[in-house]
Amino acid sequence: MGTVEPQVASGQDVKVVSSGQIVANAQSQDVTDGFHLVIDALKLNGIDTIFGLPGIPITDFTRIAQAAGMRVISFRHEQNAGNAAAIAGFMTQKPGICLTVSAPGFLNGLTALANATTNCFPMILISGSSEREIVDLQQGDYEEMDQLAIARPLAKAAFRVLNAEDIGVGIARAIRAAVSGRPGGVYLDLPAKLFPQTIDADLGKKSLIKVVDPAPKQIPAPEAVKRALDLLKGAKRPLIILGKGAAYSQADAEIRSFIEKTGVPYLPMSMAKGLLPDTHPQCASAARSFVLPEADVVMLVGARLNWLLSHGKGKTWGGKDHKAWGGQKFLQIDISPQEMDSNVRIDAPVVGDVGSCVSALLAGIGSNWPKPPAEWLGAIAERKNNNIAKLAETLAKNPTPMNFHSALAVVRDIVKANPDACLVNEGANALDFTRSIVDMYKPRKRLDVGTWGVMGIGMGFSVAAAVVSGQPVIAIEGDSAFGFSGMEVETLCRYNLPVCVVIFNNNGVYRGTDVNPTGGPDVAPTVFVKGARYDKLIEAFGGVGVHATTPAELRKAMEEALRSRKPTLINAVIDESAGTESGRITSLNPSAKKK
Predict the structure, then answer these.
(1) Residue 57, preceding bond cis, omega within 30 degrees?
(2) Which of 431, 436, 535, 424 is nearest to 472 (CA)?
(3) How high is the pLDDT of residue 579?
(4) Is 38 exposed, middle or buried (0-12, 13-18, 19+ CB in 10 A)?
(5) At 15, is the secondary structure helix, strand, or coil?
(6) Number of CB atoms found within 10 A of residue 346's CB
């Protein structure tokens, strides 16, 4: 499909309608088309930004959308655009929009869509597609693919719009599906010939739908609230675990009030860090390995007992082996009743949105709620203080070359001094060490690989975080993880985004010391080019590149990047022997299980 410029016959009137298109007025009435109906439907619902990559058959759509006042952020790869849309949805509670071309472009965006669904991020993947009548007969159309069928198993919902008058309904259904209940990814299939379809402008306007209350509150049952409070009140060693669902809910004040009024220690999962400052006296992160097996009642708030919490079983929870349950009683808040009992018995399920559930629990605790036993709080404090002191000793060291700890001591200070900055984080060791060393102070400021632990989210998340928040972004990247989306540094420069990328460069995956056991000419599969200068990459596009080999150089570069708000990439050279296989998930390697 080529460009769609309005064709005006001689003697016809022309009028500007909808978002500004000039169209022929052959019968003295205004008309609009599919391009503008999609744009108007999105704008009607408060969506003003599209992340994507132009190409046939959606290039004209991107031009028209920009002309209509929408912000169109164009990427170098659809997966990164999809990741941007997904994290924008997490940050705003509105579905992020990713726009791709058909077939291969759609497939590139599909990984991000599946990841959004897994992580409960609201996003809509909109893809152009080949015509149904040709696809169904497999007649070999350009980029022919039954995209709707492929997307369905990986999305929360999937829709196709064939007629211009149905665009309003299609957009409305996609929005509601993405944000209602448990959020997730939605696929919207728009065949190429839908866009130039024209209909009467007034009828088109009437066909659009402004979604009313797209994510209605789901109030928990009073008996469920009472059951949960009774269980928590009787606990001798209670613990609250905050998940990214708690962060997504934006019920920050209610969650903080509940934790502080009950006095219960809490453990934030990675993307829940900052709901309360990590330095809060009730934060038990520094005693994680103690509180999980020792707690007798565990309250899950927007967190799932998946692999990140060892499925609620095994030695992590005091069980004798990986299948054994440790004996804890669980209280779980989740909007999906199907989540309950997914791995272990949930003694007090509270079904509803996090904000409503926490508010109901808060209303029920009263003024005389008993604080947890001093023995439990004292035991946690002792282990916290010991572990914090040990970490401080490690961070104070200054080895040459830098290791993860000495480099992250700098990042820790920078984040503390700039709490409004967003921290994007991916890698193996780069992820694990950052999560445990760098404190967060505000909610929804830490964005990372999430439930799947998927690599490649770094630059897409960074672009979206800068666009959505307007604040500086610090991206802490392993050198391997950066490779998945590194070309998007051009995107950072093109839009002049205030993103400081720090690559922990230890010459390989996990570390750069592996060797080819055969002695052959090929390097080991985990080893990269020695001494790579990633900083030169961003310089090619006009950004600032810095080669840092000491903590002092790293600190100076990061402070200047945040001060200047210029796109910056810092190649932080790390000891190539630093790091462990797969970070903290070594046990998931089949070879490790045999040892």
Answers:
(1) yes
(2) 424
(3) 86
(4) buried
(5) strand
(6) 19
At 35, list the tokens. 């391009």
CB of 488 closer than 8 Å to CB of 75: yes
Q: How far is CA 406 from CA 39, 402, 499, 573, 581, in A?
A: 49, 6, 22, 11, 20
| Pairing outcome for strands 422-426 and 446-448 | parallel
Exposure pattern of 486-520 as b/e (b: 16+ CB <10 Å)? Answer: bebbbbbbbeebbbbbbbbbbbbbbbbbbeeeeee
pLDDT at 117 over 90: yes
Residues 284 and 317 in one domain: yes
- Give the residue ranges of DSSP H helices in 180-251: 201-207, 222-233, 244-249
Cα separation, 546 vs 560, in Å, equals 11
Asked if 571 contacts 534 with a C-beta cutoff of 8 angstroms, the reply is yes
CATH number of the domain residue 452 falls in? 3.40.50.970
Please, what's the b/e burial string for 464-479 (b: 16 or more CB within 10 A of its CB; e: otherwise)? Answer: bbbbbbebbbbbbbbb
For residue 100, tell me if it sits in a domain. Answer: yes
Q: Which domain holds residue 516?
A: 397-594
Claim to verify: residue 356 and residue 404 sit in the same structural domain:
no
> Same domain, yes or no, for 269 and 355?
yes
Question: 358: domain CATH number?
Answer: 3.40.50.1220
**Do residues 504 and 406 touch, judged by C-beta distance below 8 A?**
no
What are the backbone angles phi and psi of residue 507, rounded to the nearest 5°?
A: 70, 15
Q: Could you say which DSSP state residue 566 is in? A: -
pTM of the model: 0.93
- Give yes or no for a cis peptide into 401 (omega within 30° of 0): yes
Task: Note the pLDDT tens digit of each residue in 447-506.
Answer: 999 999 999 999 999 999 999 999 999 999 999 999 999 999 999 999 999 999 999 999
Instruction: Record the tokens describing residue 343, joined without a space.
Output: 């791995």
Residues in the chain: 595
C-alpha–C-alpha distance, residues 447 and 427, integer Å: 12
**Residue from 71, 4, 68 nearest 36 by CA:** 68
Report residue 231 CA to chain centroid gap.
33
